[in-house]
Amino acid sequence: MVKKRGGDFDDNFYRHTLSPNVEHFLRIKEEIENAFNLRKRGKAHTSPHLRDEFRVLLALYKEENLHSFCPGRSLGHAAINQFNDGYKKLDGGKLDDFLLKSTFYADVIADVQTHKRTEVEEQLVTSPDHSNDVTASEPDSSIPNSLPSSASESQSHEDDNNDEENPIIERLVSGSDYDVYLSDNRLIHEDWNDQDAGAGEEESSDEENMQETGNFTSDEESDDDYSDA
Questions:
Q1: Residue 19, in any domain of the structure
Q2: Low complexity compositional bias: what residue ranges (predicted)?
């Protein structure tokens, strides 16, 4: 509005344009509304709110309690009070069913835990007895072998005889027309077994004769010594 800074208010623009229209500045809002054909608005209720159709609509809203969340509404778009519905369902038996199922599951879990605990305790109780049985069944290595030397020698002779018989058995099994049978997890030829048995009997009879002659000579020597004395 001022042409330059520090201008005087007695300029021609202030004197001839603004000063005559200062009184109209207070009514500029109404002047603009009239210029653009804008209707006047205010905070007070206008006449359309007092018509019959609006009164009926307001009465319907008040009857249906549209401003609050209350049950019993007939309008389809009305919100549902889920809290009250849930409370009614729980009061109607849902709460009892829930408590029954929860306690049943808790009892089942408790039974499973006790069963596991008893199994662990039984294993802990039986494990020392089992170890004692194992240690008792095992022979004591500190006890020396009480077998006589003659028994050990006879066992060694039997092992040698078994080792000597093995090639014969293999040879007979490889190509033989005679009957072969299983004895002590080994294949033994019937005829050879009879021969071995006969040879064993002859050797045993010879050993018995030698022992008898030895005993007889020892008895004679003892009698001679007694007579000399």
A1: yes
A2: 139-154
Q: Alpha-carbon Rg of the chain, whole angstroms?
A: 64
- What digits encode the pLDDT tens for the residues 136-187? 555 555 444 544 455 555 555 556 555 555 544 444 444 444 444 444 445 4
Q: How far apart are CA 109 and CA 116, in angstroms?
A: 11
DSSP state of 8: -
Q: Is residue 93 part of a domain?
A: no
The one-letter amino acid code at 228 reads: D
Question: What tokens appear for 13 in the block?
Answer: 């623009």
Residue 72 lies in a domain: no
| Domain count for the chain | 1
Return the bridge partners of 181, or none: 188
Residue 22 covered by a domain: yes
pTM value?
0.20
DSSP 77-130: TSPP-HHHHHHHHIIIIIHHHHHHHHHHHHHHHHHHHHHHHHHHHHHHHHHHHH
Name the residue range of residue 21's domain. Answer: 13-38
